[in-house]
């Protein structure tokens, strides 16, 4: 649903206000600004209206925050689920509309003011002032959840028929061009590239994938599994060209072909560029916050400016589980961080707790549900045959510990191993726990 540019919130229903009072009266809560100032939280702004931003607003109300909440989003849609874009929306299984998390009455009932189709352009962190268009708005607390955007292919002037995929509008434009018999070239064999290829194939297109590395996904799943997933493209009728160096696109108004470094020219009616994402941080350049491949946060997701937190694909934070500083591009982490940032903002600096997580990701392609968690970049130990004989269970070890899991069409085994990972189980114990799925496989 496309909304008017500015939606004022309605009146809070009696039950919501009572709940808010019963849980904790955040209106009365104070933040301790590093001991220098004490300030009531009256207005919280969340910038970025997708999963991290939405979860932050929802959590603020669930935890009893009774003051003003503004949710600012550059897209003109209610917060919606992004993962179906490359899957059910492209393949036509879902209606070509935003799969919204909540409808408009929910935002009205929860007194969440929506500023959609509007972009935050500047921030003064010290003054706690956000600029949206010509307006400056003051806040007591801020959650930055501006996510990431698709990386563009550097090609000079834009050509019709060349797409990236990040938003609903991108998906609808691309879907219009996925006609039976169309030659679709996907640049990049990551998860999104593979999902696009699978959906385009189901729409009757002829698909070629170009991958710069010697096999797809080796950085994410290791060489052995990367190669196997590469073979799955071919088994499904998609041509995968690895070690491909894309030199440019040919065409006058509309793309006609993709040029490779070795002189090969691949005809293309449609090109989809799937070469990763870049965090939306440019608008923070003069904010006083630290940005470097993301918004730099501490372990509690705080930006080190007491009243400002980061969440989702834009946030870079030290994850105690992996012992590394990371910026994730995974739905579950974005949702969990949205919740966590809201809770920490309400708790104040002294009450804020670290955000620690075992990375989790899923992907749907060629009828496979791939699930992955933890560290999966070393060599896999296959507990069943290779992923083309499904169900598949692969595990990763670091000495005696289980550190990663990849399964294909094996949700029960995945759930068991997920618990084992959370318990920090030994590798042997984890393998034993899924024996009933592996002995007959
Ligand atoms: C096609 C696709 C398929 C995916 N499939 C999967 C999957 O199967 N499994 C999985 O785990 N993950 C998947 N992901 C990743 C997942 O969707 C993201 O991790 C998640 O959407 C991140 O949420 P976010 O709220 O942090 O950021 P985003 O979803 O990027 O949302 C940020 C929002 O902020 C807005 N914004 C940016 N700058 C401003 C500004 N200055 N002012 C106002 N608004 C601004 C943006 O327009 C955007 O709407 C997929 C992603 C895509 C694109």
Structure in words:
With 441 residues, this protein is of the alpha/beta class. The chain has 3 domains: 5-83 and 95-149 and 278-351, FAD/NAD(P)-binding domain; 152-275, FAD/NAD(P)-binding domain (3-Layer(bba) Sandwich); 368-440, 2-Layer Sandwich (Enolase-like, domain 1). Helices cover 25% and strands 28% of the residues. It contains 11 helices and 28 strands. It has helices spanning 14-23, 51-62, 88-91, 104-109, 168-177, 191-202, 218-235, 331-347, 411-422, 427-433, 435-438, and strands at 30-33, 37-40, 43-47, 68-73, 112-116, 120-124, 129-132, 135-138, 141-144, 148-150, 162-163, 183-187, 206-210, 239-241, 246-251, 255-260, 265-267, 270-273, 277-279, 295-296, 308-310, 315-319, 324-326, 360-365, 368-374, 381-382, 392-398, 401-408. The strands form 8 sheets. It has a 5-stranded parallel β-sheet. The radius of gyration is 23 Å and the shape is globular. Residues 47-53, 72-75, 82-83, 85-86, 119-120, 145-148, 165-166, 192, 280, 283, 312-313, 329-332, 334, 361-363 line the site of flavin-adenine dinucleotide.
